[in-house]
Amino acid sequence: MRRNVNPENRTVNLNNTKKIAFKTLGCRLNQYETDALVTDFDKAGYQLVGVDESPDVVVVNTCTVTNQSDQKSRTTISQAARANTNAVVVVTGCMANNFKEKLESQDNITFVVENNRKSSILSLVDAHFSGEILHPDQLPQDVFRYEPVQKSLHTRSAVKIQDGCDNFCTFCIIPMVRGRAVSRPVAEVLESVRKTIENGFKEIVITGVNIGRYEAGEAHFEDLLAQILEVPGDFRVRISSLEPDGFGERFVDLFRHPKLMPHLHLCLQSGSDRTLLRMRRMYDVQQFRKTIKLFRSVYPDFNFTTDIIVGFPGETEDEFQETMDAVKEFNFSHVHTFKYSVRRGTRAERLENHVSEKIKTERSAQIRDLSEKNKKQYFASFLGKTEEVLIEKVTQGIANGYGEHYIPVRFKASGAQKNTVRPVILTEIRGAGENMYLFGELND
Amino acid sequence: MISMIKHDIKIDESFYKIEEVRQLTDETFSLKLPKARFAFKAGQHISLGIHGDYQSREYSIYSGADDENLEVLVKEVENGYFTPKLRKLKAGDLVEIHGPFGKFGMEPHLAETGKFVFIASGTGIAPFRSMVRTYPEIDYTLIHGVRYSKEAYDRNEYAEDRYVLCSSRDQKGTYQGRLTGYLKNCTFAPETHFYLCGNSDMIFDALEILKDKGFERDQIHCEVYF
C-alpha cells in the first residue's frame, strides 16, 4: 500500500518501515513546525529515530537569523548528510529561503523546501519513495496547514497563530525569509488549541513571528488570547516572544486569568533610544519602561526576559551603557544576547560605523554577566514560595520542569509523573549560568 | 500514481513601467508609475528595484492613495550605488516594486478629525504629500527642513498658511535655520499628533524637543530615512 500524495488525504501507511530523523535550529516557531511534521510522519507510519540511527530521511529545519545560525545550519546539514549517505536529506526553514539556489546546488541535499511549503514535506517524501518526480516548488503554499501536534519532541506544544512580519527592523532578515505578516483565522486557532489539549498537552505556547500584530477580521491579539483562555480544559497558556508595542491595560488584565502564565519575553534589543531609532524599532525606552511598570504594579513578581543585540552599527560606549542600565533597571531574569551580525539585503548592512568583533564580544560578555546576576536575584525572590511545576521529564528520581513564572525547577519526583502539574516549595538555587535552577520539594 | 497536488499559477505583478521622470531640482526627481492595481495607505513605503539589478531600496510613496499614478521621490546621492542608477532611468524602463510596507500613517477617520504636525527633512516630505493628497480636509502644519529653498518640492501644493519652510543655507525660507531651531519656539495644542520623517539625527533631536514640551511618545510617530 502506498499513500496518496494529496496533502489533504492523510491516510496511514501500515506497511511503512521507513525511519525519519529531524534536526531543528532556531526559534520556537521552527520548533513547533518540526513538532507538527513529526506528528504528520508518525501518523503516516514513519518511525522517528535519531540522526545517528540510520534514518531513511533526515529533515533539517534551519535558521538564518544570524551568521552563527547560518554556520550552525550548514554544519548540521553536512553532518547529517555525511552520517547518512543513502538518506533523503530535506533542508527547510529560513536558510532554505535565504540561500535557496546555493543549497539546491549541493549534492548532499535531496530537497530544499521553502518555509511556505514546509507543511507539505510528508507529501514530498512519500512521492519520492513512490518513485514520483515531484519538485518542492509544486507543493502547495500554506503557512498554517500544520496538524495540531500529537507526537512531539516536547511536553508543551506551540500553537501557531501568525507568520511573517511587516516591521522591517533594519537588522532583521525575517521579513525576507518568512514573508509578509499573515494571521490565522480565529476559528482555526481555537480548533487547533482544542485538538492540542485533546492530544494530552498541559501547556500551549502561542507562537508566530510577530504575534502582537495578530489581526484576523476584527480580532486583534488580545481578542484572540481572551478566546483561547476560555477554551475548556485543564491547561496553561504561555506567550512566546513579543514585540513591546501597542499593549495596554486590557492585555495586563488578561494575566489575571489562571490559565495565563506570568511571563513575557519582551524584545528590548537596545536600551538606547538612538540605537532603537537606527534599528527602526517602534518604541523608545520610556514606552518599554511604562509597560514593565504597568505589569509589575499589578503582578510584582512577573517574569520578564528579553533579547538584546550588542554592537549594532554605530553603537557607542555610552549607548551600550544605556543598554546595561536598562537591563539592570528592568531586572530581566534572562537576556538572550546576540552579537550583531550583518544580514545581506537588510538596511543595517549599509549603515556606517560597524562595530568590531572584539568590542561586540566584550559587550556581549558584560550583558551575560549582568543577566546572570539578575537571574540569581530573581530566583532568590522565589525561595520559600510554591510554584506549580509542569514536569517535563523524570531522570533518576529527579523531576524537571517549569513553574508558572517560567523558572526551571527540579525536585525529588517521589512518584510524580511526566506531564503533570505539581506544587513545589522552592528551597535552594543550584547550578550557574544557563544551567541555574531552583531546587525544591513536593508540597501536595 | 499521479500527483494530486494542484499547481498554483501566479503571475508576477511586481514589475512596473516608468511613465514619467519628473525633475524637481538638479539632484531630485520623481518616478511616476502606473498605479493600476497597487493599493496602499498614505504614509506607507515600497521597496524599489531596478530591472536586472539585485539590489533594492525603500522609498516612501509620494503620491496620494487615490491618485492615478504611483510616485516616489528620489534624491541622487553623489557616489551612491543606487540613486545614480535610478537617475539614468527614463520613461518605458522597468522597475520592480514590492510592498506596500509600514504603519506610518493614520486611520482615515482620524485624518478627518485629528490635528497633525508633519515634520520632514529633505525628501522625508514624501509621505506627507501622500497624506495631504489622500485626505484633502486634513488639519495639518508641515514643517519642512531643507538646506536650500529650491528643495521645497511641490511647495505650491500646500496651503500657504500650513507650510513652514526652514532653510539652513539660504535666506528664502519661512525660517532661516534648521527645523529643530524653529520647533523649539513653537507651541502646539496638547492633542496634536506629530509625524516625523527624515534622517535619524533630525528625528532624534525633534523627538527630544517634543518630549521636553510634554508630549507623550504615543503622540509622536517616526519614519527614519538613512
Topology at a glance:
The complex is a heterodimer of chains A (444) and B (226).
Chain A: E1 19-24, H1 28-43, E2 47-48, E3 57-62, H2 67-83, E4 88-93, H3 94-98, H4 100-104, E5 111-112, H5 121-129, E6 157-160, E7 162-163, H6 174-178, E8 182-183, H7 186-198, E9 203-207, E10 215-216, E11 219-220, H8 221-229, E12 236-239, H9 249-254, E13 263-265, H10 273-279, H11 285-298, E14 303-310, H12 317-330, E15 334-339, H13 357-380, E16 386-395, E17 398-402, E18 408-412, E19 421-430, E20 437-442
Parallel strand pairs in A: 1-2, 1-3, 3-4, 4-5, 6-9, 9-12, 13-14, 14-15, 18-20
Antiparallel strand pairs in A: 7-8, 10-11, 16-17, 16-19, 17-18, 19-20
Helix pairs in contact in A: 12-13
Chain B: E1 15-17, E2 20-23, E3 28-34, E4 45-50, E5 56-60, E6 69-75, H1 83-87, E7 94-101, H2 108-113, E8 115-121, H3 126-134, E9 139-146, E10 163-167, E11 175-176, H4 179-184, E12 193-199, H5 200-212, E13 220-225
Parallel strand pairs in B: 8-9, 8-12, 9-10, 10-11, 12-13
Antiparallel strand pairs in B: 1-7, 2-3, 3-6, 4-5, 4-7
Please give a structural write-up:
The complex is a heterodimer of chains A (444) and B (226). By secondary structure, chain A is an alpha/beta fold. Chain A has 3 domains: 19-138, Methylthiotransferase, N-terminal domain (Rossmann fold), CATH 3.40.50; 157-380, pyruvate-formate lyase- activating enzyme (Alpha-Beta Horseshoe); 386-442, OB fold (Dihydrolipoamide Acetyltransferase, E2P), CATH 2.40.50. Chain A has helices spanning 28-43, 67-83, 94-98, 100-104, 121-129, 174-178, 186-198, 221-229, 249-254, 273-279, 285-298, 317-330, 357-380; strands spanning 19-24, 47-48, 57-62, 88-93, 111-112, 157-160, 162-163, 182-183, 203-207, 215-216, 219-220, 236-239, 263-265, 303-310, 334-339, 386-395, 398-402, 408-412, 421-430, 437-442. In chain A, the strands form 6 sheets. A 5-stranded parallel β-sheet of chain A has the order 2-1-3-4-5, with helices on both faces. Chain A has a 5-stranded mixed beta barrel with strand order 16-17-18-20-19. In chain A, α12 runs parallel beside α13. Chain A is globular and about 60 Å long. The termini of chain A are far apart. By secondary structure, chain B is an alpha/beta fold. Chain B folds into 2 domains: 15-101, Elongation Factor Tu (Ef-tu), domain 3; 108-225, Rossmann fold (3-Layer(aba) Sandwich). In chain B, the strands form 3 sheets. In chain B, strands 11-10-9-8-12-13 form a 6-stranded parallel β-sheet, with helices on both faces. The longest helix of chain B is centred in the last third of the chain and has 13 residues, at 200-212. The N and C termini of chain B lie far apart (55 Å). The chains are: A alpha/beta (444), B alpha/beta (226). The A-B interface holds A 2, 4-7, 9, 120, 123, 127, 130, 132, 134, 138-141, 166, 168, 170, 273-274, 277-278, 280, 282-284, 286-287, 347, 350-351 and B 1, 3-8, 58, 101-103, 200, 203-204, 207, 217-218, 222, 224, 226.
